[in-house]
Amino acid sequence: MPLTPRNLARHELIGLEVKVAGSSHKGYVGISGRIVDETRNMLVILSDGRFKRVPKKVSTFHFKLPDGRCVEVEGWRILGRPEDRVKKILTRRW
User: Fold this and answer.
1) Least C-beta-crowded within 10 Å: which of 2, 5, 79, 80?
2) Assigned domain for 2 exists
3) Global pTM?
4) How far is the C-alpha of 77 from the C-alpha of 61, rounded, in Å?
5) Is residue 90 included in any domain, yes or no?
6) In the 3-class helix/strand/coil scheme, how is the chain assigned residue by residue?
7) Is the dihedral of CA 33, 3, 70, 86 positive or negative?
8) Which CATH number does the domain housing residue 71 bear?
9) 92 in a structural domain
10) Residue 8's pLDDT is what?
């Protein structure tokens, strides 16, 4: 299944380029890089040679898709373990 803005929340996020567009903690805003790991509540981003852990629930992300499009996703929509999230049925799109 190709990665599109409609199925991003049900897709593998590791390897995608990401930028933190907003967060309740201002220290996370502006972090950008490549996602190298994902847990239930965090994204681990490789930024400037360092690993930055950003909580999903309180952040908004801009993901760059392989075709060059940029998609904004609220972090609470991608909460959960990656292996469970791909099975989840989406009821509402962003």
Assistant:
1) 2
2) no
3) 0.86
4) 11
5) no
6) CCCCCCCHHHCCCCCCEEEEEEECCCCCCCCEEEEEEECCCEEEEEECCEEEEEECCCEEEEEECCCCCEEEEEHHHHCCCHHHHCCCCCCCCC
7) negative
8) 2.30.30.210
9) no
10) 85
Structural domain total, the chain:
1
Q: Is residue 3 part of a domain?
A: no
Place of tokens 């040679």: 49
Q: What is the pLDDT of residues 35-88, one digit of tens each?
A: 999 999 999 999 999 999 999 999 999 999 999 999 999 999 899 888 887 776
Q: How far is CA 7 from CA 26, 49, 88, in A?
A: 28, 29, 11
Residue 22's domain comprises: 8-83
Q: What is the pLDDT of residue 88?
A: 66
Return the structure tokens found at 64.
């760059």
Residues 16 and 12: their CA atoms lie apart, in Å, by: 9
pLDDT of 5 strictly over 60:
yes
Whole-number pLDDT of residue 42:
96
